[in-house]
Design brief:
- With 115 residues, the chain is an all-alpha fold.
- The chain has one domain: Helix Hairpins (Orthogonal Bundle).
- The chain is built from 3 helices and no strands.
Length: 115
């Protein structure tokens, strides 16, 4: 299962970099979303793909009983999803305003600062 996830993560990173190198600013934002999802999957896979119980430590025990899920990776991914959504919302507003001012979504046409 880890091999499949590694291939999916690699494909997402490659697609994100390809989209971010395009001239359209909309494709740049799509690349940012793909990059965020690839990073989330990388953190999730690096923590280990284990189906386990919640990491609850019962009174008197020192470690959780049996196999347990890693809560740190889940907390990091949840935080990254919220931050990624905020960045996406900001980028969409920025694209909308840039399109109103310049009249195109081409990055080469946005180089001129006289408008």
């Amino acid at each position: 299962m880890e091999i499949v996830m590694a291939l999916v993560i690699g494909f997402l990173y490659a697609a994100a970099l390809y989209m971010m190198l395009r001239r359209s600013i909309v494709k740049l934002v799509i690349g940012l979303v793909l990059l965020s999802n690839a990073a989330n999957l990388l953190i999730f896979t690096a923590a280990g793909l284990v189906r386990g119980a919640p990491p609850l430590i019962y009174p008197g025990d020192l470690v959780p009983p049996g196999v347990s899920a890693d809560p740190l990776a889940q907390a990091l991914i949840l935080t990254a999803i919220v931050i990624g959504f905020g960045v996406l919302a900001f980028a969409v507003v920025l694209i909308h305003r840039a399109y109103e001012v310049v009249g195109a979504d081409d990055m080469d046409k946005m180089k001129d600062t006289d408008t």
